[in-house]
Amino acid sequence: MNIYQDYIQEIEERKAQGLHPKPIDSAELLSAIIEQIKDTANEYRADSLNFFIYNILPGTTSAAGVKAKFLKEIILGESIVAEITPTFAFELLSHMKGGPSIEVLLDLALGNNEAIAKQAAEVLKTQVFLYDADTARLKEAYETGNVIAKDILESYAKAEFFTKLPEVPEEIKVVTYIAAEGDISTDLLSPGNQAHSRSDRELHGKCMMSPAQQEEIKALQAQHPDASVMLIAEKGTMGVGSSRMSGVNNVALWTGKQASPYVPFVNIAPIVAGTNGISPIFLTTVDVTGGIGIDLQNWVKKVDENGNPVRNENGDIVLEEKYSVATGTVLTINTKEKKLYNGDVELKDISKSFTPQKLEFIRAGGSYAIVFGKKIQTFAAKTLGITAPTVFAPSKEISIEGQGLTAVEKIFNRNAVGVPDGKLLHAGSDVRVEVNIVGSQDTTGLMTAQELESMAATVISPIVDGAYQSGCHTASVWDKKAQANIPKLMKFMNDFGVITARDPKGEYHAMTDVIHKVLNDITVDEWAIIIGGDSHTRMSKGVAFGADSGTVALALATGEASMPIPESVKVTFKGEMKKHMDFRDVVHATQAQMLKQFDGENVFQGRIIEVHIGTLPADQAFTFTDWTAEMKAKASICISEDDTLIESLEIAKSRIQIMIDKGMDNKNHVLQGLINKANKRIEEIRTGDKPALTPDANAKYYAEVVVDLDQIVEPMIADPDVNNEDVSKRYTHDTIRDLTYYGGEKKVDLGFVGSCMVHKGDLKIVSQMLRNLEKQNGKVEFQAPLVVAAPTYNIIDELKAEGDWELLEKYSGFEFNDAAPKSEARTQYENMMYLERPGCNLCMGNQEKAEKGDTVLATSTRLFQGRVVEDSDRKKGESLLASTPVVVLSAILGRIPSIDEYKTAVEGINLTTFVPSIKELVTVGHF
Questions:
Q1: Which residues of the chain have pLDDT under 50?
Q2: Which of 44, 131, 195, 781 is 20 to 30 A from 844, comparing alpha carbons?
């Protein structure tokens, strides 16, 4: 059977699943298809033509290279295809988005045939995905007097690729669809357990929400063919949990419009909304596709005659409906007035959805086109020696005289591109910044690779200090899906110039360390900007932003990102931690005390949390910064004392050295370069030339939260509250309860210590508790399974050296074996301890899960429905989040302990403690 017949067989198999043919990315397959097109008598010619025109992935896929070359032959008359005229061939090239198509267009535009050159030039004028090699050819041709090159450059300088696009419609008609009540996790739009299919967009689209809801959306589209379906989070926030490009892709697939008639299953322009708006990192992903995100505010706090919030019998603030967006409501978005209407009735000012920058994204079909377009315009104007005309909305620059800078404002000012010297920008400014560190994770990495191919990028930007491709999300089970996807991903990223967790050449041992932990180690400058393809890209050094796979690709390809400078909320601490408390309890208490202080308003949402951690090293501080994703913050920044930061950098250096010793550095010696940067930074701090980053004393904050440690007297648990009568209150991270609430009676079916929220100290706590309980009771017996997954291999190595791992092995019934990794996910658990491979494990939910309907107590961050545990017919699955000692004791008891049982179990154990800094961590002067 030849490669074409293999493809036909795959088509038949997909047809049985209700799927269309998979888009082609293989040069070998497309070459066979072209041979059948050339053979006018071939029985498969008609299908082959259809595949060639409508089913090839664009960009830098090997198939795109073959397609571009054949189209060039057609244009030059070297191949004759009746159905593809030279004019149509040019049209097909215009939809191929860079890479080999640009090379072909430049060949033609700079060639000797004047008529063809002019046609090629007209197509090139519409293209923006050009790289250095492409622009160098244009510049060289212009400097040698080529008239066509000059014509193209003049068009680029005027940004005609943008100005000749249709304007954004003044009115956009929408029909509402309430996807869920309460916060909508991106897991609803793109479930983690379907991560393996994300790069197959049509297949993955079938997992969005439920088949019944998909049918309801189709019915709305049939009833309202002139309207776009707007997905809504009623009484909640849309897109919490992660950026999830696959989630936005799925929404666009069901409710958006096709980006190109010649590229299947790539849709753009989804419209999403939420009562409490859109999660910041998800909104960035919506921008990538030229979509619209709306903050409805259709439910508001009910107040009494004195203006105070009304509370119900549970103490929760009562909401009242301001206007209805019930499913099937037809609304109008006026993009000129920037308002939302129901008929003639104005419902809401939605100006924030239509800033000048967002309008450009919508008009261009996505933010990438604008980012690349600006670079092309700047290049063309510079080459021509002219000043580029103002076409794009100017960067928003807010500078307030006499006002100091917050930490994030300082970092953005340090890394800003194109800002006049000496000008200081404050929050609200829209800035282009250089990115220092980039991370790609393994379940979105395949999409990042696709995005890089579609952008025609082939090598990492030299601006980036370091980039890492993880293997943590697929670490727990090396199944057939992982075996098919991960080696291919690692090879692509390794070739691109990224440090990879797994070696495509098989020369170093696979590292499945959790991506955010690795990024936290390779960030060696607290002034850095980090972009990572995971919502928990929240470093305790620098400022990090979780991002969609496309924004990660953009950062890898260009070394830049564009975003507004967010407002900050300052978090400081007072009082003293009780000896029986763990730092995780401080993290939970921060959320609870903030909500209480601000009458239920989450002041963290969409803002930077500037946490004055002071004395806590990066590993432990990461527990706080990691949780800020669940606080719905845009990002977080740790303000440290000088000595603490030096300690953190020394730890980072040692871990980077381990990566070098494994053989993970590349030909550019990226990892060694990071150690050199760390050494330089340590010297700057020690000499006083550049102390640790602190905000200005006169910086302005949106709010300030003071966490009172004296109030934290019991372990705190984040409860999904799965049976709350108000469904909008379920599965949020805002329900924080103390241990006593459960009365020592709530059954626990499984405990999980692992993922990114734990550090070395947590694993030592596990071993110390086992030793403690054995001493107190004579033996340790588990009444529920306990899954333990260290976040990194180096933690296991250090535990082995210090004797803790041996004790963990003593009590475990299962220990991971890298030489023979599991090939199937565990579906049932025994009452024992499982020592699992480093990585995300249960927290990711794409491989391992608890048994359906279980009550899980975990140290992880995920309590969303169906993530760690799915519902069963008998009961709802629930994932409660707590500190390591609470989880361990609960697994041993088979229930949540009483406070007295807890205190006895942790007596004499070194929990993760925290002492607030006695210094005021601010500075006078901006840098």
A1: 927
A2: 781
Can you name the residues that pair with 856 across neighbouring β-strands?
Answer: 750, 879
Rounded CA separation 625/368 (Å): 29
Which residue has tokens 């803790």?
A: 804
Task: Region of 482 please: left (phi>0), alpha (psi -120 to 50) or beta.
Answer: alpha
Place of tokens 């900050």: 568
List the structure tokens of 728: 């909008």
Structure tokens at 623: 């527990």
- Nearest alpha-carbon partner for 102 in 414, 395, 455: 455
Letter string b/e over residues 232-257, b meaning 16 or more CB atoms within 10 A of that residue's CB: bbbbbbbbbbbbbbbbbbbbbbbbbe
- Do the strands 319-321 and 299-301 form a parallel or antiparallel pair, or are they unpaired? antiparallel
Helices (H) and strands (E) in the chain, counts: 31, 33
d(CA 68, CA 94): 10
Strand 345-349 to 339-342 pairing: antiparallel
Structure tokens at 208: 């969005």
Question: Which ranges constitute the DSSP H helices of 76-175?
Answer: 86-94, 100-109, 114-124, 132-143, 147-157, 160-163
Return the pLDDT at 890.
97
Identify the residue whose tokens are 């005289």.
401
Could you tell me if 252 and 269 are in contact, meaning their C-beta atoms sit under 8 angstroms apart?
Answer: yes
Residue 757: how many CB atoms within 10 A of its CB? 28
Rounded Cα distance between 599 and 510, Å, is: 48
> How many C-beta atoms surround the C-beta of residue 387 within 10 A?
9
Distance CA 283, CA 77 (A): 47
Can you tell me which residue has the tokens 């609304």?
331
Distances in whole angstroms, Cα of residue 715 to Cα of each of 578, 593, 595, 897: 10, 14, 18, 10
Cα angle for residues 829, 833, 834 (degrees, 5° grid): 70
Instruction: Give φ, ψ of 436 to 5 degrees.
Output: -95, -45
- Residue found under tokens 């579906």: 827
903 close to 675: Cβ distance less than 8 angstroms: no
Residues 352, 356, 360, 362: what is their CA dihedral angle, to the nearest 10 degrees?
20
* Encoded amino acid at 107, one letter: D
Provide the token pair at 98: 């860079």
In this prediction, residue 310 carries a pLDDT of 87
* Side chain identity, residue 271: I
- pLDDT by residue (tens digit) across 189-246? 998 778 788 888 999 999 999 999 999 999 999 999 999 999 999 999 999 877 788 8
Quote the pLDDT of residue 927.
46
Q: What is the pTM of this model?
A: 0.85
Contact between residue 362 and residue 269 where contact means Cβ atoms under 8 Å apart: yes
At 443 the pLDDT is: 86
- How far does Cα 490 stand from its chain's mean position? 19
Token representation of residue 30: 């497309």
